[in-house]
Every structure is written in C-alpha cells, then in structure tokens.
Amino acid sequence: MPVISFANAKGGAGKTTAALLLATEVAARGKRVTIFDADPQKWISKWFELPRTCPGISVVSEMSPASITEQITHATEYSDYVIVDLEGTENLIVANALSVSDLVVVPIQGSSMDARGGAKILTLIKKLEKIVRQDIKHCVVLTRTNAAVTTRAMKSVQEFLSTQNIDVLMTPIVERAAFRDLFEFGGGLANLDASVVSGVAKARENAALYAAEILERAITVPKKRWYNIFKRAS
Hints:
Organism: Roseibium album
Largest sheet: 7 strands, parallel
Order of helices and strands: EHEHEHEHEHEHEHH
CATH architecture: 3-Layer(aba) Sandwich
Shape: globular
InterPro entries: DNA_Partitioning_ATPase (IPR050678), P-loop_NTPase (IPR027417), VirC1 (IPR009744)
Protein name: ParA-like protein
CATH topology: Rossmann fold
CATH superfamily: P-loop containing nucleotide triphosphate hydrolases
CATH class: Alpha Beta
Strand content: 5-15%
Number of domains: 1
C-alpha cells in the first residue's frame, strides 16, 4: 500500500499539519492508516494520546535509522496507507524513509528559507533515485497560505518552483484555526465543533481537496522496497 512521506529540511514548514490532515481525511473514508512520527517534537504522538480519537489510525513513535525501512514495509502489510512525518533536517532516518516512499510531499511556506529547505530535500531525492535506481515520485504543497492575499514572498516561491518544473499541488493548505485546533482537541476535522472553532466548514473543504490531490498522485504500481541504504546507525 502507498507510503507517503512528508519532508522539508527546514523546521516549521507545516509538515506535521499536512501529514495529519491527510491521515485524518483518509481514515474518515474508512481506510486503515499507520503514521510514523519521526519528528523529534512528536506532535502527532501527542495528538494520538488525546481523549478524542480518530478510528482507523495507529501511530508509531519509536524508530531508528537501522529499523525504519523494515518498520515501514511491515506496516504496508496491514495498512491501506502509511504516512511518515519526518524530521526537519537531513539525516539517516529521512534518507531511508524517502528511499521506500511511493510519494514524497514537500510542504513549503511562502518564504525563501522554506524554499531552500525544500530544495535540499528535492536534491536529496535525486541522489536517492540514483542509489535505488528508480524514480521517487514527489510533489510540493504550499502551506499556511492566506486565503485572501498572495504575498510577494509567496509569488517568489511559486515562480521559483515553476522554473524548476516541480509538481505543485493546485490546492494549498490555507492558514486555518481549525487545523491548529486538531492538536488541541484531537480527532479529525469532522469532530470539531463549529460553534467553538471558527472556519470549520472551509477547513474541511480545503482538507478534502488537498487530500484528493495527494491520493491521486499516490496511486502507483508497487515497487521493490530498499532497506537501509546507509549502513551506519545513529
């Protein structure tokens, strides 16, 4: 089953939110989802421990560079989707996880720092493709965008991605209070009380369109899984 990883070499790019939105949207469709929480902040693990749960989702929070590829491959045997939230840096866990991914999603905010962090991951993907001798499908999702205004910085990022011929989702993840509140209340967007959280309806629409684009790209022919392309453990 598809392995979808979220990576950006700069922290704070919106990886965790993007990963959790996809996981909850997929689970809401009745699918089984395993999330690998490889981010040191463990926000998804903390979300998973909240009283309000999201049926169909399990979270793995313990992994190592030597074990993550086998853990991911094992999870594909019992999950419909495997989602990996990676650390905001370049390390062995990131490289090994990317090497067994069917789709890598690179979240980028409208800033030059985020664009540079995303570019590092895209460069790493190209290196890994030579090692595993097969393409690693990838795309960019713009995050924390303003629903009403496109900033000059965001336009600059969009122009940079366009000149690099990078696949960019048509649906950006808009800055919404409802997305932040998932980490406060738990569960998915369907569980949020519109009388307490603002903009829930628009957040649900945004998340559904975003997830649909990701899932369309994730449809793939199963490929050979590669194990621990870097031997050295941390």
